[in-house]
Each structure stands twice: as structure tokens, then as C-alpha cells.
Amino acid sequence: xxxxxxxxxxxxxxxxxxxxxxxxxxxxxxxxxxxxxxxxxxxxxxxxxxxxxxxxxxxxxxxxxxxxxxxxxxxxxxxxxxxxxxxxxxxxxxxxxxxxxxxxxxxxxxxxxxxxxxxxxxxxxxxxxxxxxxxxxxxxxxxxxxxxxxxxxxxxxxxxxxxxxxxxxxxxxxxxxxxxxxxxxxxxxxxxxxxxxxxxxxxxxxxxxxxxxxxxxxxxxxxxxxxxxxxxxxxxxxxxxxxxxxxxxxxxxxxxxxxxxxxxxxxxxxxxxxxxxxxxxxxxxxxxxxxxxxxxxxxxxxxxx
Length: 305
Ligand SMILES: NC(=O)c1ccc[n+]([C@@H]2O[C@H](COP(=O)([O-])OP(=O)(O)OC[C@H]3O[C@@H](n4cnc5c(N)ncnc54)[C@H](OP(=O)(O)O)[C@@H]3O)[C@@H](O)[C@H]2O)c1
Fold this sequence. Notes:
The chain is globular, with a radius of gyration of 19 Å. By secondary structure, it is of the alpha/beta class. The longest helix has 15 residues. The mean pLDDT is 97. Helices cover 40% and strands 17% of the residues. The two termini are 36 Å apart. NADP nicotinamide-adenine-dinucleotide phosphate binds next to strand 14. NADP nicotinamide-adenine-dinucleotide phosphate (NAP) binds next to strand 14.
């Protein structure tokens, strides 16, 4: 597993991260095996959110691993806040309370990265700035980022927030390529030409914000996995063909396709299966050719102009 420097901070992170959204349903021994398999495969970055399993994902993660300081030091722990029942909340009070809850559940004094989970229509960036400064000065959070935000929302934060925004977590997979489609189909009278995100991909590259693609195996909004799925025959045939040529599983190719993009994205995989974690780690050793990358893109049903 390649370790890469993350821009605008001193983090040296595995280029693939393990998302912990689904682990709350596992037993403690299962969580321990999953996380240790990831660590053995070179994954040192773990993504959480205060809402995953209503807080259980974070709590069970620390409990199952019996998180000692030695083990904690081998990990980069990221969590997110800002989603509440029926509302989004980026108020200073909520951010500060949320982080205290995260630190307690994760049994740690410091969170490496805090992301704002989903844009709050009522955001007051001055309050976010105050919260971030308090969290950084107190040593509770080292670095900050956002999730599901467009360029102007980040610009608004940046007007007040002093700390660099190092990550933006966005949905992206072979079957969710909105971030790429609009750039390929500029100024055309077809749907893929529609820019739904304010050119977030180019904005992040210009501003050295690392994109963390979430749900890299899902199609739609959690509709299911596209691999080995009869709904995507041409895509699976192409991925299987390329997987065979590289001697890896289709799972590895789905991640290698994301890693091939020169934006240096850090995909967040959500599998709870240790065998799949091992398969996924092999993606880090593969560099797809330009031809293979475009063939997969086209096999997903995308047309080039
Ligand atoms: N910022 C946001 O708004 C946001 C939103 C959603 C998620 N996230 C983050 O992104 C992470 C990943 O999300 P996700 O879990 O939806 O993503 P995912 O990695 O696309 O999906 C994982 C799910 O797909 C299943 N799966 C079935 N076949 C698979 C295969 N061949 N390879 C891999 N997985 C397969 C897994 O089952 P098994 O467990 O049985 O392998 C698991 O249930 C989350 O844990 C979370 O940290 C962030």
C-alpha cells in the first residue's frame, strides 16, 4: 500500500482509507479482525462520523481494538459532524459538543481530522471559524475538511476559517462520475454536460484539497453494488477482463480506476469483509493504462463526444 503525503498538512496517509460506517453491525472480534487486516495491508486511515450507527461505530471501533496509545499512534482517525436528526448544524455549539462526543467514543484525546459532513443551509462561517480555532488550540483536532461541498461553499468558509481545508469527501465511483462527465462534455446540449457541482474536481485540484471518494462500489444513492450485478453487463465484462489481465479481483480494479485519476484521490472503502480488504489493497500496486481507464468509463454507459 502506497503512503502519500496529504497536501497542506503533515499527514502521511495510505492512499486508500477504510470507512467505518457499517461496522456497528459487527461483533467486536469481527471489527478487530477487519481493522487489523486493514492495518496489515498498509491502511492507516480510518473514516468515521458521529452519526454512524448512532455513535456505535466509533464506540465499538475503540472498544473492539481496546485502543491503546501504541495502536492509536499507528492510525489517522477522521470523523465528521454536522448532521442531526432532520437538520444540518454547523453552529459553534454543535461542532464543539459533537467533537467532545467523538473523542469520548473513540477513546482518544486528539482527532486527526474533522470534516463537516453535509452543507448546512444556515451556516454562519464565522461560527465555524471560532469552533475550528478552539478545537485546534485545545489540541482536540489537528486538521479540518469538508464533505459534499461545492467550490463556493468552501470559498465562503475560507473567508473566515484560518486553517486549511485539506479534504472534501464526495460520492464518486465508476458508476457515479458526475464530477468528470461535465468536464468531458463542455458546452454540449446533453445531460452529461450539466455541471452539478460547480466544477468541484478542478477546484479541489487547483486548491490542493484531497478528494475522498465515498461509496466507491455503489451505484445511485446506496442502490447497491455495481460489481457482479446483472444491471451492468458490459461494465462487468470489461472490469473482469482487465482484472484477469492484472491477476486481481474486480474489486481491486474498481479502486485502481479511481486511483488512476491524477487528482490523487483517497477512496474510502466501506467493506466489512477482511478478504475484500486484502483484495482492495492490491489496487495500490496497479496503474491502469489510459486506454483501460477510458474503456471502463465507456463500458459504464458513458459516451465520449
Ligand atoms: N461523506 C459522506 O456523505 C459519506 C456517505 C456515505 C459513506 N461515507 C463513507 O464512505 C465509506 C464507504 O461507503 P460505503 O460503505 O457505502 O461504500 P462501498 O465501499 O461502496 O460499499 C461497501 C458495501 O458494499 C458491499 N459490497 C458487496 N460487494 C462488494 C465488493 N465486491 N467490493 C466491495 N464492497 C462490496 C460491502 O459488503 P461487505 O461488507 O459484505 O463487503 C458493503 O456493504 C463509509 O464507510 C463512510 O466512511 C461518507
